[in-house]
Each structure stands twice: as structure tokens, then as C-alpha cells.
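Researcher: Please predict.
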Amino acid sequence: MTATLPAAGRSPVRRLAGLLHRRPRLRLSLLLTAPLLWLAVLYLGSLAILFISAFWTTNSFTSEVVKVWSTDNFHELFTTPVFRQVILRSVGVALAVTVLCAVIAFPVAFYTARVARPRWRPWLVVAILTPLWASYLVKVYAWRLILSEGGLADWMLKPLGLDGPGFGLPATVMTLTYLWLPYMILPIHTALEQLPAGLMDASADLGARPGRTFRSVVLPMVLPSVAAGSVFTFSLSLGDYITVQIVGGKTQLIGNLVYSNIELNLPMAAALGTVPVVVIVLYLLAMRRTGALSSL
């Protein structure tokens, strides 16, 4: 029978383990120190540098950055019509992608969560998430082939006397919708799967039609999950610049302007980069009221 060692005879590791066991707050603090330090130094630090450099200027002759505090970049950003149009277009594309993802995701998630046989539901979720394992560029270039002249879109619409959308703003919205759709389906599927079946049965017993049940019972309970999915679709679409370069034709979004100004005018690129950050922060504050952040 092994005797218990006195406190003085314990190894430093045992004493440290006992201390951490008695003080859970200290244990939690030690666990979170490294990731929080990483977040503060790399992520928040880089955002701070981005915001500070947005107030610098560029020498028009040498193109060198002049570290003098000025608001000229932001003044030019909001007074130049081209910049205003690009900002509004980028926000509009992000909203359009979010709405399309929600419209498509809801019936798909309802089928996978409530209609399909229980044994098939995990496989359907796997099928929905499988495209996320594929390369981003492979998927975008696949859509470029689909939307190109004489591609699959033209072939399918030709019997109807129509042509494919080609490259441009509609192609960008379609491609982004395909890319980020799983991020909307998954939270809605989870919310519908957890929805008690008795609520819909009770609504039907009280004489409510399917449309009224959807508006009064299902939608209010699933809306936070829809908002949670929209956080991903909106933010990812707003900051994207590769898709629009591949299938957007001559369309310009904020990401393209940031990319094109990095070497020519770094402070202006930083000022442009602060716009999606501010828009996403405002969007997150708006989604907070719906309870979406607690669903993430």
C-alpha cells in the first residue's frame, strides 16, 4: 500500500499540479495567456499599424511614405466619386451574397435537418461541407470555366435562347455565393435540428397553416443562426479580391483597390483597408442585437 508523500517531499511538478487544481482561475489564465498575447500582438497590433499608416502620406515625386499626420487620404476616399462607388458596390455585393446564401441555405438545411431520414442526415452534412476541403482557387477557376463564353452556362441556356452571364458583377455574386454557402447552411441546419418538433405540431393543432408556422414559430427561433451565418458570408465577401479578379471582368471592389495601391500608395491602401474593418465592426454590432454572436 503506497503511503501519501508529505507536502515537503513532493516534486515541483506535483506541487504545481496541486496549485493549478486548487486555483481554476489561475489555470484558465495560464491557458489563455499565449493565445491572447498572440491575438493582441499580431492581429490587433497589425490593425493598429494599418489604422496609423492610413494617416500618413506619399511623396508624389518619389512615391516614398511620408510619416506626417494627415487626413488627406480619408478626405480623398470620401470625396472621390470612384472610391465612393467602389465602397458602395462592395457593400452591395456582400449584402447580395448574404441574402442569396440565406435564401438557398434555408430550404437545404430544412431538408437535411427535418425531412431527410435520420441515418442520411450526417452524410448530407458531410456532402455540404466537402467543398470547403477543395482549394479556393480551384473552385473559382472552375466557375470561370462555367461562365466563360461557350462554357457550361451558355450550353445550358442556349436551348432557351439565352446566354450565360459572362464575367462581371453577376458572376462575382454567383461565385461568392457558391464559395460561402456552407457557412450559412451549417448554423441553420444546427438550429433546425435542435428545434422541438412539438412546437410545429402544436402550431398545426391550433389551426396555423404552414406559412404561419414558419413566420411565427420557425423563423424567430432560427433567425439568430441565420444572422450568425451572415457574419461569415458578409465579412468574407466584403474582403474578397481574388474572385473578382478572376470572374469579375472590369468590376472593381475594395480589395482590388487595396491590392493595386499597396506598392503605389501604401497610406491610401491602408485607408481603403480600414473601410471594410469599420463596416464589419458596425455589422457585428448590429448582429449582436439578434443574438447571433452567442450562436458562433
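Model: The longest strand covers residues 57-58.
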